[in-house]
Amino acid sequence: MPDTQRPVRLMFVDDESRILRSLALQFRKDYEVLTESDPHLALHRLEQEPIDILVSDQRMPAMNGAELLARARALQPQGIRILLTGYSDVDAAIQALNDGEIFRYLTKPWNPREMDDTIARAAELSLRQRAARAAPAGAAAGADIPHGIAILLLDGDPLVEARVLELCAVDGHHLHRARQVDEAIAILNREHVDIVISDLRLGEHATAPLLKSLAQVRPHALTIVTTPYQDTQALLALINQAQIFRYVLKPVSVKLFERALHAAVTQSRHWRARPQAVVARAAEAPRDEGERAAVNGLVGMLGRLRGRFGAPV
Q1: Is the CA virtual torsion 224, 66, 126, 282 positive or negative?
Q2: How big is the CA angle at 213 (ends 154 and 253), to the nearest 5 degrees?
Q3: Which residue in 2, 77, 80, 218 has its CB near the most CB atoms, within 10 A?
């Protein structure tokens, strides 16, 4: 069967057989469902056949979920990866995001409707990715894309600023800086931005609503969050609602920050050279009514950005 015609293949990995049975029962009607209780067997399957969506538990005796998702990303980078865990573990969440580039972070016990919506959105993106890969390549797609990447810095940390300035000087990237949220919005409406590097506070204001609105309007923009805060619930919301690319704790490790920055530059160049590519990113709406209203207001303020770069993909 051609790859574009086969059903979406969904694999769940969990060391508890009852959870695997429950998940298989919930999704086997609409998807081709595979289950594995051993992460090593899951990796073997990933070496043998394409897996569109991989959902992994975090705490397993043979290998933790964050490590599995990171290794899965190396084997099948086009796959969509989701971490499912019953524990509040900020280190696991950071590892799953930074190394596994997860699409969602879900908690146990899961809400069946939320899980269903998450898998449906991931499946939709996976099918669109498949169709885009099968379509004839455009002639010299991306050949005229400039080498330099546009970076917006929303962080006054001297170490962060120094590393970004150094990268821009060496590689010819374009740097924009903002000290207030209003200034950041103005830049985003005026300039093309590929990468946003942001603390969770800018001046007197939180930046999370801006990052969440940007994820809805411009899913191609990659966000690196730099922060001293280790709050699992806040990180979960940033993963699911802002689709952040990397999360770097302060005081910043130069090595980790540079690795995050270079990964973002590489991904941005890839997307700019392939404008027809489908980006496997889709922000979840904030659950808190007040925050949802704030994000929607910012989405409206970023309306010109939507118009200039097209609808989210």
Answers
A1: negative
A2: 35
A3: 80
What whole-number distance in Å separates Cα of residue 185 and Cα of residue 78? Answer: 31
pLDDT, one tens digit per residue, over 131-157 is 888 877 654 444 455 568 999 999 999
- Domain boundaries of the chain, sorted by first residue: 9-134, 150-309
Query: Same fold for the domain at 9-134 and the one at 150-309?
Result: yes
Cα separation values, 205 from 28, 154, 209, 242, 303, Å: 45, 11, 10, 17, 21
| CB half-sphere exposure, 83, CA atoms < 13 A | 33
Cβ partners under 8 Å of residue 190, min gap 6: none
pLDDT in tens, 59-85: 999 899 999 999 999 999 999 999 998
CATH class, domain 9-134, is: alpha beta
Residue 82 carries which DSSP code? E
Total residue length of the chain: 313
Contact (Cβ atoms closer than 8 angstroms) between residue 210 and residue 189: no
For residue 200, what are the contacts with CB-CB under 8 A and spacing of at least 6?
Answer: 206, 207, 208, 225, 227, 229, 234
Number of other CB atoms surrounding residue 248 within 10 Å: 20
φ/ψ of 153, rounded to 5, equals -100, 120
Mean per-residue pLDDT, 175-188: 95
Task: Classify burial at 269, counting beta carbons within 10 Å of its beta carbon; exposed 0-12, middle 13-18, buried 19 or more.
Answer: middle
In sequence order, the 6+-apart residues with CB closer than 8 A to the CB of 258 are 163, 167
CATH topology of domain 150-309: Rossmann fold (3.40.50)
Distance CA 176, CA 28 (A): 48
Read off the pTM: 0.91
